[in-house]
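Fold these two proteins, one after the other.
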Amino acid sequence: MSDGYGAAGRIALGAPVHETIDTGSPAAWVALDAEVRNLAPHAASLLPTRQELRGLPAGEPTPTEEARIALALCHPDGRVRGAALEPASGVATLRPLLVLRCADWVAPVRLRARELLADVSGRRLVSLAGLILLLARRERGGFAGDLLDRALRDGPAADVESLLTSEDRAIRRLGYRIAVDRRLLPPAELARTAATASGDTRVQTLCAEAALAAMGEDDHGNVVDPLLAARSPQVRSTGVTALRRAGRHSEAAAFLADRAGVVRACARYVLRQAGCDPLPLYRSMCADAARHPAAAAGLGECGSSADAEALWALTTHPVPAVRAHAVAGLCALDAVHPERMRPLIDDQAAPVVRAAGRALRPYATGLPSDWLLARLSPELPAPTRLAAQRLMDVRSRAQARGLPVVL
């Protein structure tokens, strides 16, 4: 029976709570709550009753008593859950279940649990941050989150700082949000975090913007330079924009050929604010495209129809990155000619094929069916087959809407 009902079954048979579940895991407590409800219809005699809870002695419960209280806090009967609140209120290991009951669907249970949780000190709440944030997604789960937020905003800075290195992304984000609001981190540290917090764009953006907002005259180098070196395009773009405020407009030229369009756009903005036209710089870079592959995309973003032929010439460049960015530049100029673009679907470089596929999608209904079908052959490289399939899908959707399609 215990195996079929997980941790709840083992606790019901006498196993201590701390030996049965990972008490530091929010998911384990949520799972226990559900398991006890699933267990009740099949083994109700193993679960505690209100009479049993009334007979518990005062003071610190034994491991067996603690297990019974835990089961009662998850009992499907709201009256049993309510009776378990008082015995659980002073037991630190059962505090996660008190948090759960703050979102209980039975109002008396929910309100009493909230009264008891409100008496828990801020530092003890911080240790429950993962569960509190998990339950905040529930319909009635905001109360504990508000308590935690107030505790972090009014409590010691060390409590907030302890969250910044959490492996839980939600906890880490909360910590940085509070730290920024309380101005606990210097601009240089915020910039370093923005540049190194890989995989979490929300923290990166928050810290980058906060670093610039708090940047003083003496902080320019310590703030702007890490942002410029960041792998994240959003963070780099923030750093490039900050060059204007730092009086370092000319350095933006180095980012005109950045691989990310948002960074290129910020670089052009900064240069124009200093009275520098980026177009001649792009044309010069495209003359040495191997050193500046993304300059072709930038030229399309700010050039004119007069630059289209230069970009078409770059679609045959020996460097694949140049060819791919040249296609992107032609799209930006609205200078795509399907007949000239079609050969690039057979390019040996996957990035070029993907770029050509995107460029041809607006013209998919006019592409010959036999040409597309030939590129679905299993003998061809996967990128070519995928691009052709996507173009076929665009044609199918157009046919479904009654649009004319070349057969």
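Now the second one:
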Amino acid sequence: MVILGVSQQYLESSIFPLARGLKHHEVQLFSLEIMDSTRGEFIEEKLCELANVVGCPVQIISDHGSDIEKGIKLFIQKYTSVIYTYDVTHAMALLLKHELETSEKYQSFIQKCSQCRHQLQQIELSFLSPPSQRSQCRYFNVEKLIDWAQKLLNCPIETLFKLAQTDEPEILNKILITKFGWLKDYQEEIFIWGQMVLMTRTLEAQLKQNGINQESMTEFELNEFSLFSNQTLVFQQNIIEYITTEIDKIPEGRTILATSDIIESIFGKYKHFSSRCPLKQIGQMILSISLCTMNLTTSVVKQALEDIRYIDLKDWASRVFGQSMLSKRKIVFSTSVDDIEFA
């Protein structure tokens, strides 16, 4: 479990005036520990312990994961002044998921995209392949497929002839119709889906740059979207309901964070580092999370090398993680000296 923090004063003086997001070294690591269970009661206990050390938080932002959310709500029952904010990135992805996951047309569209990608792998038009689809969190990146379809539908045929470098345009035209003609069946829906994505990304950019406050609704409504169907009208209303719910919690004149992207980014960096390990397990590499939040100057590195002994780090890792999987594997599969045969 990782808890990051940043002061409200720093946000108001250095982040919101510049209309930008937080950087890794601008947040402080408040908690980093291995938990055997993520039950809400355990999350609440950790939050209470932290509040006793650093004080009651102004705001908590999370992705509404069930266990985390339960723990936060239990915590807020004791600290009623805390503002609990639903991260805008996850909120918008969930709205898209609810809209598209139950759409037979959209599910058919992504299946066609997958088939098309497979068919184009070994031919001269492979540069037109749809982007690969993620097996998880695909609704965070739904715009990639929609953007691909929109641009391909709008691309002049002359450009495709030129890029394919062919002297037989009639044959190429037949191949294009065979491989991409199915997109015409989804043209209207692709435009509607594109408008939905545009709404979510517009709100995300607004709240991530400016924070969220009582003026956020007015700012969002200044955007003009193409709402020519009941589907897009209802979807826009769902976005407005999210904004209304969140700003109702915020005192007049205060601007707060609307996203937990910073913790997602740091976890992504940790996953990148830990992917180099031979076996997948949680181990010493979690300390890279704390390094992400530090400004590693020469003096900081020097002090760390002088103050922290490797033997202490090794002892800590042994107590927290026990014997590593790689160590156990070496014991079982290492070659015995008695088994060595000499030529």
